[in-house]
Design a protein that fits this description.
about 650 residues, two-stranded antiparallel sheet
Length: about 650
């Protein structure tokens, strides 16, 4: 028996060494391939473009003189780097899962942190389009620039003259990073996402360690909770939603990894959430309740400031744990002391009060559209929950006896209470834009911690190759999402605009590569104040000129394609201003840019209120008679494609 064990250990050691050598060879080949591509890739494509080289290669470029050679070189770069990254991710996943399943000695969690962060860094490098545009990238960047202009709280970039009724905690952090390191907000958001992913993986590992002191099981928790809470990709979830006749398929909440590659505030919110979960567990098991009480207070206040959407779910979790402590107090699940409960309630109230004013001022408009106990929405959310997390819930149910026997009961009860509270929040809180999916994200990630341990447990009774395949199935949705995001983002402009890129990131600012348009934005930055307001037909000014729009006109080709993902109706939902004010501003803008130019100068009087108000003309969309009567010309670009006017004072 001892000899068999020794032979098995030697075999595993040989396999581990072979995997290590293979990984090093792959890394070396990757570096060599990268160097060869940098040195000869463009030269080879240019030769093929000129009709040189083997005929087979020449046929790869059809209609080769339809576009400049640079176009095909850019395509070659995109194909090479995307293929390189996806092969690297596949190889890296295989090595990680091999070490997790087959190796006798599990790897350190730091390697998982490094692997996850490296994937994000490479994706941001290979697809700047997604790093910049994302879903609402330019919209969020415009808020950052309002803060960099010295407006705290920031003004509304698309409804100039009023404060932004939008949570600005993360944009404030991004603005500080941009100012300190002299980088654009896009790079700052990417840095926040990468660091947040590393912290979240580490925190989930630590939480799992409170449940069971088994390093492999803890790694399984980190992998499942972040990368694999469902086995269904977005497309499959949408298909299942259609088959079940669901009006809305929840296809953007799980796994959590999906949110780390978007330009949003969810990643830093997850950091505070998992810090909250860890501190809650330690609060009831440690002799220093005030220490972890302070951590809970920081987590609640931090989440309220940086990502307020998670705060209701965390408050619900506090209430659930208080209820559970009262019911189970004195049993094997909880001790006799009520001191931790008192500390929890006190620090939670103090934390919520400390950010209460900020939360109300930035969410009041959205809050008025929230519904509680909407039966139809609750039924649909329950169906989405069971579809998306069904396999994971079945796995936990199958392993329930093992979990009850081997997990720390108190820690297990707290994690289940948090999962139940966030799940209930998802079921019974409903907002206009299905914003409750964020509670689903919290519930899924929390359940994933237990699900990872359950997968480890059932894996002890399965052949290793079966466990390996199960893990691959769990990681498939994250891989599919990464593959999709490496393509040219769905409806954003192509990365390369003509023979150059559409935008250029220079220091803290973003410049348009078109010299005439960029000169227009630079003139505005230099010659107008940050409090100035502009009426324009496009949404670009808040980003490229760092100025506020006085009214936002709906131009689908400018919004959804350029990374705003919003309409005027959406802005009304988010900021909750008087609808009559919207209509008045829209009427004035339509009068300026409409075909009949039916502007009544008096219409501006009440709304102008002493502000510097400018009119942007793009390619002759304002009549000469209108410009002469009501506006004074300030700037005309070199080709006269951009003009700037100031509104003349209104005579009373």
């Amino acid at each position: 028996m001892e000899q068999e064990l020794t032979n098995k250990t030697k075999t595993c050691s040989k396999r581990d060494r072979l995997v290590t050598v293979t990984a090093l060879v792959f890394l070396g080949a990757l570096i060599v391939g990268w160097i060869v591509h940098e040195c000869f890739g463009h030269i080879l494509i240019e030769a093929i473009y000129d009709g040189k080289g083997p005929e087979t290669l020449q046929n790869l470029i059809q209609f080769q003189h339809k576009y400049p050679v640079e176009h095909y070189q850019q395509i070659g770069d995109g194909v090479f780097f995307r293929l390189t990254l996806m092969v690297s991710v596949c190889f890296g996943m295989a090595v990680v899962l091999y070490r997790l399943v087959f190796s006798e000695k599990a790897f350190n969690v730091i390697w998982l942190v490094f692997f996850g962060m490296a994937i994000l860094v490479m994706m941001y490098f290979l697809n700047p389009n997604f790093r910049v545009y994302s879903k609402h990238g330019l919209f969020r960047c415009s808020i950052v620039y309002q803060i960099l202009n010295g407006s705290v709280p920031p003004g509304d970039p698309y409804f100039a003259g009023y404060p932004a009724h939008y949570p600005w905690g993360t944009p404030w952090l991004v603005a500080m990073l941009s100012r300190i390191f002299n980088i654009t907000p896009f790079y700052s958001y990417a840095a926040v996402n990468v660091v947040s992913l590393g912290l979240v993986i580490f925190l989930v590992h630590r939480i799992s360690r409170q449940l069971i002191n088994n390093h492999k099981a803890n790694l399984f928790s980190a992998v499942i909770a972040i990368f694999g809470t469902t086995v269904f990709s977005r497309k499959i979830l949408t298909l299942l939603g259609g088959l079940l006749h669901l009006a809305h398929a929840e296809n953007k909440a799980t796994p959590a990894f999906w949110k780390f590659s978007n330009l949003n505030a969810v990643p830093i919110g997850l950091v505070f959430f998992f810090l909250f979960v860890y501190a809650l567990i330690r609060l009831f098991q440690d002799k220093r309740p005030w220490l972890f009480g302070m951590v809970i207070a920081v987590s609640l206040a931090g989440c309220g400031f940086f990502y307020v959407a998670f705060l209701p779910g965390m408050v619900a979790a506090v209430l659930a744990i208080c209820f559970l402590r009262v019911v189970l107090g004195g049993t094997g699940w909880f001790g006799l002391s009520y001191r931790p409960l008192f500390v929890l309630l006190l620090v939670s109230v103090v934390a919520c009060l400390s950010v209460g004013g900020y939360v109300f001022s930035t969410t009041a408009a959205v809050g008025q559209n929230v519904q509680l106990f909407n039966i139809y929405a609750a039924g649909e959310n329950m169906a989405n929950f069971l579809v998306g997390l069904g396999p994971l819930l079945v796995l936990i149910f199958v392993c329930r006896r093992w979990l009850l026997k081997n997990l720390d009961k108190q820690s297990f009860a707290i994690v289940l209470a948090i999962a139940a509270a966030t799940t209930a929040s998802y079921f019974f809180v409903h907002s206009w834009y299905r914003g409750e999916y964020k509670f689903y994200l919290l519930a899924a990630a929390t359940i994933g911690i237990v699900g990872g341990v359950a997968l480890y447990a059932i894996g002890q009774r399965l052949p290793m190759i079966v466990l390996f395949i199960l893990l691959l199935l769990c990681l498939y949705p994250s891989y599919a999402d990464l593959s999709q995001k490496l393509k040219a983002t769905g409806n954003a402009p192509l990365l390369y605009y003509k023979r150059g890129i559409y935008f250029e990131e220079k220091g803290i600012d973003i410049h348009v590569s078109d010299a005439e348009e960029d000169a227009f934005y630079q003139w505005i930055k230099k010659n107008t104040t940050t409090k100035s307001a502009f009426i324009d037909t496009q949404w670009k000014l808040p980003v490229f000129a760092r100025r506020g729009l006085w009214v936002a006109l709906d131009r689908p080709d400018d919004q959804s394609r350029m990374g705003y993902g919003l309409t005027v109706r959406d802005l009304d939902f988010y900021n909750g201003y008087d609808q009559a004010l919207y209509e008045r501003r829209k009427t004035i803008a339509d009068g300026i840019f409409g075909r009949d130019h039916s502007l009544n100068h008096r219409q501006i009087a009440d709304t102008l209120a002493g502000k510097d108000l400018y009119i942007v003309e793009r390619c002759d969309n304002i009549g000469d008679d209108l410009a002469e009567r009501y506006f004074e010309a300030l700037f005309t670009s070199s080709q006269a494609n951009f003009r700037l006017y100031r509104v003349k004072p209104v005579e009373r």
